[in-house]
Amino acid sequence: MKLKPRLKGLNEVKASATPHRKVMDSLRDAEFRRNLQHQKAVHSPITARDAGMGYQGPDMEDKGHKDGSCNRTACQMPLKGKLQFWMPIMSTTSGRNYYCADCERAFREWDEQMVRRGENKPGGYGLDERGYRCRPDEGNEALYESNYV
Known about the structure:
Elements (H helix, E strand, L loop, with lengths): L9 H8 L3 H23 L1 H6 L34 E4 L7 E4 L1 H16 L18 E2 L3 H9 L1
Antiparallel strand pairs: 1-2, 1-3
């Protein structure tokens, strides 16, 4: 004669439904790491880049200025003493926004795609003869000479 298995009590049901301690610890660790990454992304552009995230804090006062911070909101890396690139401000004839080398590279790759697709014409409004929006700053030559000569 077969016996039916004993019914589980409420405590046994709760115990079997709770995830294992290691799982709970790893979930807590993952949440801690996410919070830490977010804090780094808000703290400064440098800690955000180290964490592999875009900067999420308030805009820097010198954002987009020469020797200030990169104009791209998710970057805002310091530019002083580094290669700088500028892009004309389309709404004015004399304004410039400054960008770091990493952001300039991303703009250049996008511009190349737009030229290949025929959407940008080299030499067109705001573009140079190759179809790029960003141009190297005149001070980059002195920076090259001081670092490589």
